[in-house]
Amino acid sequence: xxxxxxxxxxxxxxxxxxxxxxxxxxxxxxxxxxxxxxxxxxxxxxxxxxxxxxxxxxxxxxxxxxxxxxxxxxxxxxxxxxxxxxxxxxxxxxxxxxxxxxxxxxxxxxxxxxxxxxxxxxxxxxxxxxxxxxxxxxxxxxxxxxxxxxxxxxxxxxxxxxxxxxxxxxxxxxxxxxxxxxxxxxxxxxxxxxxxxxxxxxxxxxxxxxxxxxxxxxxxxxxxxxxxxxxxxxxxxxxxxxxxxxxxxxxxxxxxxxxxxxxx
Length: 264
Hints:
With 264 residues, this protein is an alpha/beta fold. It has helices at 2-16, 39-43, 75-89, 112-124, 127-131, 168-171, 196-208, 222-231, 241-251, 253-260; strands at 26-28, 48-56, 59-62, 102-108, 135-141, 156-161, 174-180, 213-216, 236-238. The chain starts with a helix and ends with a helix.
């Protein structure tokens, strides 16, 4: 029995593990709390950036809770305008590397239908934001019913829940699968991860649907990042942008090879 469990663990591990991790696999959690929102994650080449939004007085504000709304940080100022400037500078691409993509994860905090409609209205004013294949708008938080996913414009995608069933129409508009790490484990980012086999099986389910996987609310330190990589999650949540970038560079075989190369 012990041998069977070991073989199963190894199989799930190899099935889930992507070949290499870079900041394209990094997700800037609550990015608007960074000292320099958007640009810090962007300059580190992050593949995913998160903004929580509220609809207030017909305007989309970026905030984590209602108390922060008084700061009046607009989605337009914090994310739309910076994105437009990047597209203009890079010839219609998110990054100077035209193959590199950027996901904007929009976490809706107010009414799902009204807030999403306002977001679509705002984005649609700028065709550059909807025509580029290098930017993906993914809706999380308060979302419409999955039955409505396919009714939205093609540039709108959805963050769905791991281990939940969806119709074929809904699957066609799902960009990724996410879940709360704490639902599966109370691990605090130190020592052994007791629920590792369970978490590997959860990630394997996402692989079967050919969707990227993310575990939010996970510990956010070097040991936790290493465990998340071993689990095979596609996006690593972090509040520590520079530190995660440095960690990924240190473990990258390509980076190590360059450091060890002696010039003739």
